[in-house]
C-alpha cells in the first residue's frame, strides 16, 4: 500500500511540474489537506485494480490465506495462461482467447458500420439544406435515450428474418443502430461549427454531396473522428447485453465469455483465474484510456452532454 | 441581350417578406454593385442569383437561360465570399483546383488556369501554402483567384473587402477594378460601402427594405438621386436636406426655407410644374457650395450664417453652419477651415442647377 | 424541371438513418407496445383482446418481482446519487488545487474505461467473505466488520451501489470540472476580496451557478440507473433470490428465462415510461436554454 501511495505522490509531482512552473504556488496547510484527501480517494479508486492484479499473480493456496492486500509470495503467470488458453465458458474450454478474437471480429465491422452511418448522417443534417432535418434531429435526440429493452425483441426478430441473428454481423448491425443517435448528434454538433460560407463555396465549386464530403469535410474531421472511434471502440468492447443477445453460441464477445466463466464456474472457484480473465478483458480499453485519455474523456462527455 | 436579369422576384421567410416584386437586369460586362444598409435584402438577392437561397416567386435569367431552379454549380457563376471561405485543409493550389476538378477538366488545362490566375494575382509563391499560413490580403487574393480560374460568365462578390484594413481595402479595390477592366466579366458585387460602389461600379442598385430605390450609373445616383433615401445614403458628408416651400412670383420659382432664406429654383428641371406653397425638401451637396466669403456671382442662393464648428478629415474639411434649427454642412479647403471660428458669420453661395428637390410627402424626386 | 442534386443527394444520404430511426426505433417501440397488449408467450401472437388489453400490466403490478425491481430502482438511484456528490467534491478539490490535476483526473476516470462486467467481477472478489477484504480487516483486528453484503438480500443492493459509485464518480467529476471551469475566474477573486468563507462561497455562489450541470448530471444518472443491467448481472445476477432485480434485469429475465414475450414487453414499456418521466425535464430544459440563448 505504501508503494502505491508513494507512486501516487511521485506521479502527482511529476505531473504537476509544468503547471507549477508558470507561477510557483505557496504550499499552504489547506493545499496539503486537499492533496491528502485526493490521494486517499485515488487509493480507493486504485484498490480494486491493485487487488485484481495481485490476486491474478498468486496461487490459489496463497489466496486462501485471505490476505487480499498482500503482494504475491510466489509470482506466477499460471492463472493468466490458464485464463487465456483453458478456462471454461459453458462447455467450451478453450479459454478467453476465443472471446478475445470474437470481440476483435465484432469490433471491426461494428466500428465501421456505426461510424460510417452516423458521420454521413451528421454531415447531411448539419451542412445541407434539408427541410425535415429539424424534425428528424429531434426524433433522433429522443431515440438516444430509449432503453434497449423496449426495442430488443423487435431487433431480434428483424435480425433473424434477414439471417444475421447469432452472427458477428448481427452484433455489428445492432451496435450501429443503437449508437447511431448519439454519434449523429456528436458529428452534427461538430459540423455545425463549420462556417456556412465554406459550404456555400464548395456547393458552388462542386455541388457534389460525396465529393465535398470526401475532399473538404472529411479532412476537417480528424479530431472528432478520433473521439468517436475511441468512444465506440471502448463501448463496443465493453458491451455485454448486445453481445449476449445477438451473438451466436460461437461468436460471443469477451465480456460474455468472462461473465460465463465467473458466474457459471463449476467446482471450486479459481479466483486467480477469474481475476486474470477480468484483467485480460479490461486491458484493451485501459490501454486506449491511458494512451489517448484526452479523446476518451472528450468522447464520453460529448456523448453524454450533447446527446 | 442582358446578361443577368431578375424578373418579379419575391422572397419571404415565413411571414416576413424580404424582397418584393423586384426587377433588375444588367448587360454583359457590367459591374453591378448592390448597395444598401444591412438587412436591405442585397445579400439575399446575391444568394438567390448564386442558387444558395431559394426564390419564393419569380425568375432569374443568366444570358437566355432560366437558372431559377438550377443547382449553383450549373449556373456558370463564381463567387468571392466575405470570410473568403477557403478550404482550410487544402493548399492554395488545392483551393484553386477543387472547382475545376469537380468540373472534370483535364489536368493540363487545370494547371494552365491555376498558373494564369496565380500570375494575375501575384500569388505564385503561395501556391503550396495552407490558408492558415496566409495574411488577410493574401487570402483575399486566393479567394478571387478561386473564382477567376473557373472562367465563369458572371462573378459574384459578397462584401469581399469588409474584413480588410483600410489600406488593403483601397489596394484590393483597385485590384478588382483592374481585373474587371482586363478580363471584362459581368460582376455582381454586394457592399454597404458607398466608396466601393462609386469607384468600381458601372451600375449601382441602391436597395432599402427589399426594394430597389434607384438603379443607374454612379453619376446618375450621385447627381440625381431618385428619392430621399438615396440622397441621404450616398455621399459623405451627407447631402444637406432642408425643408422648404415653393414660392412663385413674377415667373420666378424659389424655395423658401423655415428661416426665411431662399433658393432660386427656376432653372430646375421639374418633371411637373410645382404648385405654389407646396412643401418640398431641398438637397444641397456640401461640396457645391462656393468658398466662404468669396465674391458671389450668379448664385442660386446666398446664405449668411454663423459658424458652428469645423471638422478636418485629412485632405478635406467640413464646415458646419447654423441653419434654421439644424446644421448646414459644406466642404471647405483645409486651409480655410482654420480661419472659420465658431460664432463668426460667413457668406456662402450655392450655384444654380445643382440642387435636388424632393416631394416632402412622398420623398420622391420632383 | 431538372433534378436538383443539391436537394436530392442529402435526402438520399439521410435515408438509411431515417429508415433505421423509423424501423429500429419508432417501429420497434410500437411493435413492443403492441406485444405488451397480447397474450404472446414464447412466440408472438398478435391477437389483441381489447376487453382485457391491460392483463399483462395488471399481472406486472401484482408481481412481487416487479415491485422489488421498482424499489431497487429507487434505492439504486438514491445510492448512485452519491457519485454526483462525490464527483463534485473531487472536482472542486482538483479545480482549486491545480497540482496533480491530470494525474488525479486520470486515476478517477479509469474505472469508466472498464467493462461493468469486469467491475462486477473485481468487486465481488473484494467483497468475498472468506478471502476478501472482510477476512483481511478481521485479521487486522476489526472483528465486527461484516462485508458479506452479496449473500444477503437486504445488503446486496449496497454492494451494487458501491461498485457503481466507484465506476461512475469520475464521470460526474469530469462533467463538474467542465462546469467549474466555465465559471468566470473573477468570481473567485471577488469572493477572496470580500472575505467570503469557502463553505459559503460554494453553497451560496458556486453550486447555484452550477445548477444546470447538476441537473444534467441528475438526469444522466437517472437514465443510467433505469438502464442498469450489466453491473447487476455481474455482481449478483439478480440474487440472492429476487432481491437485486431491477427493471432492466426484469425484462431480460422475462424474455430469456421465462420466455414470456407479452409480459416482458409490458415491463419494457414501463421502462420507457420511466425514461420519459426523466426525459421530459431534459427536453424542457434544452428548450428553455435555447430560448434564453436566443434572448441573450
TrEMBL record, chain A:
Coiled-coil parts of chain: none
Pfam family, one: BPD_transp_1
Compartment(s): Cell membrane
Membrane association type: Multi-pass membrane protein
Keyword Protein transport listed: no
CDD domains xref list: TM_PBP2
PROSITE patterns from the UniProt entry: ABC_TM1
Annotated TM spans: 32-53, 104-128, 135-156, 162-187, 208-231, 286-305
Keywords attached to this entry: Membrane, Transmembrane, Transmembrane helix, Transport
Location (main, coarse): membrane
Single GO cellular component term: plasma membrane
GO terms for biological process, alphabetical: transmembrane transport
SUPFAM superfamilies referenced in this protein's UniProt entry, alphabetically: MetI-like (SSF161098)
InterPro entries with a match to the protein in the record: MetI-like (IPR000515), MetI-like_sf (IPR035906)
ABC transmembrane type-1 domain ranges (all copies): 100-292
Family label: Belongs to the binding-protein-dependent transport system permease family.
The protein, known as: Carbohydrate ABC transporter permease
Automatic annotation (TrEMBL), chain B:
InterPro entries in the cross-refs: AAA+_ATPase, ABC_transporter-like_ATP-bd, ABC_transporter-like_CS, ABC_transpr_MalK-like, ABC_transpr_MalK/UgpC-like, Mo/tungstate-bd_C_term_dom, NA-bd_OB-fold, OB_MalK-like
Keywords: ATP-binding, Nucleotide-binding, Transport
Domain of life: Bacteria
One annotated GO molecular function: ATP binding
ABC transporter domain sequence ranges: 4-234
A GO cellular-component term linked to this record: ATP-binding cassette (ABC) transporter complex, substrate-binding subunit-containing
GO process annotations (BP): carbohydrate transport
Record Pfam families: ABC_tran (PF00005), OB_MalK (PF17912)
PANTHER family cross-referenced by the UniProt entry: ABC TRANSPORTER ATP-BINDING PROTEIN, MALTODEXTRIN IMPORT ATP-BINDING PROTEIN MSMX
Family: Belongs to the ABC transporter superfamily.
Protein name: ABC transporter ATP-binding protein
Organism: Rubellimicrobium rubrum
UniProtKB/TrEMBL annotation, chain C:
Native organism: Rubellimicrobium rubrum
Chief location bin: membrane
Signal sequence, renumbered to the chain: none
Source species, domain of life: Bacteria
Stored InterPro entries: ABC_transporter_permease, MetI-like, MetI-like_sf
Membrane topology according to the record: Multi-pass membrane protein
Ranges where the ABC transmembrane type-1 domain occurs: 69-282
Family statement: Belongs to the binding-protein-dependent transport system permease family.
Locations listed in the record: Cell membrane
Pfam family, one: BPD_transp_1
Keywords linked to the UniProt accession: Cell membrane, Membrane, Transmembrane, Transmembrane helix, Transport
Transmembrane segments: 12-33, 68-94, 106-126, 156-180, 201-226, 263-288
GO cellular component: plasma membrane
Name assigned to this protein: Sugar ABC transporter permease
One GO-annotated biological process of the protein: transmembrane transport
